[in-house]
Amino acid sequence: MTAYQHTKEEYRSSRVAGWHCLKKQAGVGVILTALFLAGCAGNPAIKSGSSYTELYEGASELTFSTLMPVESAEEAIARGDAAYRRGKVDEAVFEYIRSLELDPDNADTFYKIGAINLHKEANNKAATAFRLALEQDATHPGALEGLGLMMMKQREYDQARSMLEQAVEADSNRWQALNALGIMADLRGDFTEARSYYDRALLLAPRNVKLHNNLGYSYYLIGHWDRAEGQYQTALGLAPGHERTWRNLGQLYTRLERYDEALDAFAKVMSEADALNTMGYIRMAEEDYRQAEAFFQKAAKASPSYHVTSNENLEQVRRLIARE
């Protein structure tokens, strides 16, 4: 039985009733149901009298047995927030769960638990917490964003788009939702809309490396090479070790036949043989088979362990050359 399937037995009937009501609101319930049924069982919950321990993923409950009792939900939340600021995320969730025993209708607390679990990749527990937040507040922007991001990772793009658009409508400052909407717009070929989302996100997080990289790739997709390069260089100025941007910059330079620069870019994040082989693939995709052949040959010479792979690539590209 998955974490999601435990819900009816473990949460009081009023919460379940609220969940059924949520199904009627803007299709959110249908989307969430699809997500929960797609989940897989997480680690066993800690044993406790708390009906919310299903939301906990971390150190044994005994770790926190010496913590002082709390007098109110507000005190528990304050302790959880303080633990989170110290980087003690397990203790933070433990305190948030204690607060829910005193105030079970706090959407923000469910959201905080969901956000921590999502960061820890405890996806079942994150989704359950986000769902319970939406049960209390169907327009909670953080919970909508969190579930939307999870749906996007599962490639449920239509559902993810709906949830993320609702998140942005509820709170226009959700830069992660805007970034995700931009990515999905690029995937469906709506590049103008994609750049609009990235631009809005960058107004909120102007030094975010991922946003600059994603905007650069959006420009790359429509052949605006100079703008793509500019965004990649901005990203690397902010984070010189950002692997995805170096790969994208190497791809751009290979596409532009700036091969020395491409090799330098790829060499930041991979071996010379890998770099040359990657450049060969890019030129092969551009139907520049002669140049692809040259790169595959260099890759084979650069690394004896790469000989088999490179020869397989050479055979493929030579068959393509023979058809010309």
UniProtKB/TrEMBL annotation:
Any keyword Repeat?
A: yes
SUPFAM superfamilies, alphabetically? Answer: TPR-like
Q: Does the keyword Repeat apply?
A: yes
Q: Which UniProt keywords apply?
A: Repeat, TPR repeat
Query: What are the coiled-coil residue ranges?
Result: none
TPR repeats sit at 73-106, 141-174, 175-208, 209-242, 243-276
Protein name as it appears in the record? Uncharacterized protein
Species whose genome carries this gene: Marinobacter lipolyticus SM19
**Taxonomic classification:** Bacteria, Pseudomonadati, Pseudomonadota, Gammaproteobacteria, Pseudomonadales
